[in-house]
Write a structure and sequence with these properties.
85 residues, 3-stranded parallel beta sheet
Amino acid sequence: MRSAAGREGTTAVVIDAETVPFVDVSAVRMLDEVAEELEARGVRFLLAGDVGQVRDVLRTAEARAELRHVYPTVRAAVDAARTGT
């Protein structure tokens, strides 16, 4: 993922978390670190697939705001990346 995000012209990375049944606090910290690294490169890191448990752990573990906003679909995340919303 990091190498793909490093390609010239990349403005966002979207992860489809719909099939992720569970994340723990360690995983949230790792996602947060990746998001921070990408942000430093000017690349947004967006999650899609509005799964309740993952979304709840992201909020509870105090992940960065952009990670706490889980888009309902990949299409919605891609549209947000394109429009900057």
